[in-house]
Design a protein that fits this description.
- The chain is mainly alpha-helical.
- The protein folds into 2 domains: 197 residues, Glycosyltransferase, CATH 1.50.10.10; 145 residues, Glycosyltransferase (Alpha/alpha barrel), CATH 1.50.10.
- The chain contains 15 helices and 7 strands.
- The strands form 3 sheets. Strands 3-4-5 form a 3-stranded antiparallel β-sheet.
- The longest helix is centred in the N-terminal third of the chain and has 21 residues.
Length: 408
């Protein structure tokens, strides 16, 4: 009898251990635990030193590498710098904000300030209906190609500035990161701008819009939904009205992901209606923007662990990609038909980040592929390179919540 009880206890403990091993994150996520998982260590057995060396190599290449084939950041006069899309010969608010996020996560204040100064000098609208917004596309000399805004640029600018305010002490005469962030938070949700310009968030639907214009105010881009940012804004916005609004946006974005993800493949469209239905045409397929939805669902789980569906979703989409065999295309219809003969490290990087919410056996091949991939170079290094680098930080435990000192 005693032996039988011991055997039963051993089986029970083994089952519990197995369940714990399959659970992607601790209850409450990194916001509660303060722990940011490192999938390269967990799943591949790499050391912290090896991970740091890989991240350092990417920093050196993208920020200080060969100007013609490697780097993304280009310094200019006035102690400024821009992130270049070499393939399209322009500067985008997306890339500038991503560069700033990489810099603040790696404690690179000088580079952060140079990028922000360029964005504020050349991209920022100081007056008119677009006041407070940023031109999404400029030439290398700072002149506007398109003065309109891509909503994700403003979202990422706001988050990077808040992290900077929380991470770095003020300097006399320096950038007031907190004020700049709050100005953006206020501007993104407030209307009455006049003309064709709208808030960046649809006030009724509590969702980010594709672009803040009357024409684009009625639909969204699933990859622009960042509930893990909104959760922080719901705590750190200085106004009660703002905190309430961002809390509602976080809740709505999580619900939106449920509606936008295909029930079998888990794929989301590049553009979508507020009810999650894809728009008509090719933008209703899983394309370049939509790669980022894999990471954004998983990061929300990693930081806040508020929705168990996010683990199901991450398993679903990684299971679909795994089912494609040795070649995974970079574009699909939502029901899983490939519409491309290309593959892209940007997609694999986002799939690796999805491992933060997925079962280890599904996540490991994608984490391995990201680890083994060379640092993107050449003409098309901009988007693939930025997603590659963000993927390294996010999967490698270096993409962290930087809270105000009082919260810490």
């Amino acid at each position: 009898m005693l032996l039988r009880r011991l055997l039963l206890l051993l089986v029970s403990l083994t089952a519990v251990a197995g369940l714990a091993a399959a659970t992607p994150a601790s209850a409450g996520g990194a916001f509660v635990t303060g722990q940011h998982r490192n999938l390269f260590v967990e799943l591949l057995g790499k050391s912290d030193a090896e991970v740091q060396a890989k991240i350092d190599a990417a920093w050196q290449q993208f920020f200080y590498g060969d100007e013609s084939s490697q780097r993304l950041m280009y310094p200019v006069a006035g102690d400024m710098a821009y992130i270049a899309d070499i393939g399209n010969q322009d500067v985008r608010s997306e890339g500038m904000s991503y560069g700033m996020m990489i810099a603040v996560q790696l404690d690179k204040r000088a580079e952060f300030d140079r990028l922000w100064k360029w964005a504020k000098t050349y991209m920022h609208h100081a007056d008119g209906p677009r006041r407070g917004y940023f031109a999404w596309q400029c030439r290398f000399d700072g002149t506007h190609i398109d003065p309109g805004s891509a909503s994700d640029g403003e979202e990422w600018f706001a988050m990077t500035l808040l992290f900077a305010a929380n991470r770095w002490a003020p300097k006399p005469g320096g950038i007031d990161y907190a004020v700049e962030a709050q100005t953006l938070l206020d501007g993104m949700r407030r209307g009455n701008r006049g003309g064709e310009i709208t808030p960046i968030f649809n006030i009724e639907h509590k969702q980010v819009v594709f672009a803040p214009t009357v024409r684009d105010y009625g639909y969204t881009d699933p990859s622009y939904h960042l509930p893990f940012f909104y959760e922080l804004w719901a705590r750190w916005d200085r106004s009660e009205e703002g905190r309430s609004f961002w809390a509602a946006c976080a809740k709505e974005s999580r619900t939106f992901f449920h509606r936008a993800a295909h029930p079998k493949t888990g794929l989301m469209s590049e553009y979508a209606q507020f009810d999650g239905k894809p728009v008509s045409g090719e933008r209703g397929d899983f394309r370049y923007d939509a790669w980022r939805t894999l990471a954004h669902v998983a990061l929300d789980h990693a930081w806040f662990a508020s929705d168990p569906w996010q683990c199901e979703q991450s398993n679903r989409v990684l299971r679909f990609l795994s089912s494609q065999g040795s070649f995974i295309a970079d574009r699909y219809t939502l029901d899983g038909k490939p519409i491309s003969t290309d593959d892209s490290i940007g997609l694999f990087a986002m799939a690796a980040v999805a491992g933060l919410a997925a079962d280890p056996e599904l996540a490991k091949p994608f984490v391995q592929k990201l680890w083994d991939a060379p640092i993107p170079s050449g003409r098309w290094r901009y988007y693939n390179g930025l997603l590659y680098y963000l993927g390294l930080l996010q999967a490698g435990g270096r993409y962290q919540i930087h809270a105000p000192a009082a919260a810490k």
